[in-house]
Records
---
Amino acid sequence: MQALQLEKPHHFRFIEVPEPQAPGPGEAIVAVRAVGICGTDYGGFLGKMPFFSYPRIPGHELGVEVVAVGPGVVNVKPGDRCCVEPYINCQTCHSCTRGLTNCCEHHQTLGVHCDGGLRPPRRCSSSGRGRSASPPSSLPRCRVLA
Ligand SMILES: [Zn+2]
Ligand SMILES: [Zn+2]
């Protein structure tokens, strides 16, 4: 399966990535159907985004379709269209344990600090824990794991 990787500023390349493993408890497999491109991505492409690291699979504004769910998942089902919370927090640091997940000491943003959505289906958590922003309320939500 191929993904699009920004190897370094101004240089994209296709890379091979492994098929996702079957979803575990509380997880889902999602296929990316749409990716928004914003100033963060453009800054990463230009090499002017200070938080961006390389090489990186970009993509943090993701419209996805659930293709499989693991045991215990009740909030999404195959065929559901979702948006993805791109902010990943640890749930264990000083900030997270006080509910300030946007201040997580180990915060990562998909497609910026870790690989994002310009790739084939990937494994996600379907839990809502740790979200700091809300997608449109008409869509079910899932959260992608790093
Ligand atoms: Zn953005
Ligand atoms: Zn944290």
---
Amino acid sequence: MKDYDVIVVGSGIGGLTAAGLLAKSGKSVLVLESHDRPGGYAHGFKRKKYRFDSGVHLISGCGPDGYRGGQIIYKVLQALDVEHCIEFINIDPFSHARYPGLDAALPQSVEAFCERLGRLFPEERQGLRDLTRLCLQVAEEITVADEIMACTNFAEAHRLMPALCKYRKATLAEVAREFIINPKLLGLFASNWPYLGLPPSEVSFVYWSTMLIGYMVDGAYYCKGGFQHLADTLVDGLARHDGEIRFKAPVDKILIEKGRIAGVEVKNEKFAAPVVIANADIRHTICEMIGEEHFPPRYIQRIKKMQHSLSIFAVYIATDIDLIEHKLAHESFCFQDFDHEKNFAATCNGEITWLSITAPTLVDPNLAPPGQHLLMLTTLLPYQAAESWQQAKPGYMDAMLKLAGKYIPGLEDHILFIEGGSPATMRRYTQNFQGAAYGWDVSPSQVGPTRIPNQSPLPGLYFAGHWTSPGGGVYGVSVSGVQAAQKVLGIRQQAEFWRLIESIGQA
Ligand SMILES: Cc1cc2nc3c(=O)[nH]c(=O)nc-3n(C[C@H](O)[C@H](O)[C@H](O)COP(=O)(O)OP(=O)(O)OC[C@H]3O[C@@H](n4cnc5c(N)ncnc54)[C@H](O)[C@@H]3O)c2cc1C
């Protein structure tokens, strides 16, 4: 049985981030991944001459510059000495929002965003500006929240982080209504809600602000070559620091000895380590891989009460239609209604009434042969929307294709390749419960101090990924990987952690 300092279960972006940083810090690290490639929801697949992303198609946090502490993915790649091996393509506008009678680009920078949307709703210009600036203030305060909370009291925290403290329990809808009256502008402002899986009335305003400002200020990026390249580059970074990874290695059990972590078991083979970082679904990790009896009952109750996010239905298409002629953007959110509560309710009923259309070949033509394009159509769906996804899949694919045809006339006659990915597919490739796209929901009661923290009460067990703090999306899980590594090293403040990581290897 080989010994390691740290074993990471799963090679999603959260797991790879934690693994790479700990390898860099000098720990011996092994990553075990059940799939045949790294990345989790960021993995890619090839069909014929096409390179598809399975899920992830736009992220933030990749630039060398950005709002304070925002460029987390760039920092991680730099720490692993692989930032020069990858190219991120800046996407500005970061999204297009399409509604009946209104088609709006959502540009980067607070000024350009307010100017563009303000032109459409001149009477709401001031409210829009104030709301967007508030999002910026919250996003900036959150980057220092951990450090402030580590060394000060609550009253002082209120003084230093007034917006975060005031709005920590608020939803996007509650805050947006303080500033904007027109329901169409409220809908337009919230157009990216599918990125967080919850409608404005349920999503945390704080998490929303981090996401929106991440794309708007730090920048929105596509990874040249597809997001598999991001995962592969993180694996290269891990290897550069002597970390190991094994594929087709599903961890069945996490071993406990004398009340603490002792290692893991994969197909009857054992690997010893005093520290395990689970990048897998937390409920599965605790209840199936370890056993509830090793945790305090209150912790188990809390885990069982947490609400998970919806899954996603995806359609992967290759086409020879001229998307440039159709003025398509990298990503368009296409809604029939400005009311996202209605859109979400239809989604929860298993109906296809809206979708996002992503066309990565517009920014990275090498993903397909010349003259051809790739499209990914996505919509949120609950796993329970179908009894048998095998039977339901063709019907959902047809519905998505028909809806996309409204925005790309003639698409149905120009299909060179088409394949569907249902919530069951999402579950199969990542083992996330019911194919949850973002781990636990990011509602106000499940983010911040009330999310399941990166360090568990079982000595030696840590978490990285979208089931732990801070939350879902590639930006969020990258932060979670940093936080998990920091906790394993027992460092209280993130600034100190980065000082340590950056000092390694310097003369
Ligand atoms: C279709 C889709 C599109 C998305 N698009 C975007 C986007 O554009 N931008 C964005 O920021 N976010 C997007 N998201 C959300 C984002 O992909 C996730 O929140 C994030 O990638 C999750 O990362 P993670 O580190 O938690 O690991 P996951 O991606 O959940 O991967 C977990 C890994 O652990 C492995 N694993 C699980 N159990 C075991 C075990 N027992 N043994 C060994 N290995 C195991 C799995 O095989 C998997 O590789 C999307 C999600 C989906 C589903």
